Fold this protein.
Amino acid sequence: MGLLAWVMMGLALWHFTVWLPDRYWGGIVGAFIGALRGAIVFGFAVSGFHVPGRHATHIGTALEAIPGALIGMAIVYFEGARRERAHQSTDIGLS
């Protein structure tokens, strides 16, 4: 159940990416994957490298995924922005 809470929190935070410029590596799907991966990895690490069961899951379990989802989306965003800048610099050199 803890994994479900982490995934749902990552999914919830991913919805806010519509207000940001689309510079994510892989577009909106890349942001989705970054949010889910970040939430799961961070939640897994914070919980002591085990997934909380049904009776060990509480509101704090879902809140543990927030920093991970934000970090995951930030990594994908900055990688996409870096690739976009590199692509623009090669286009300028070809002109």
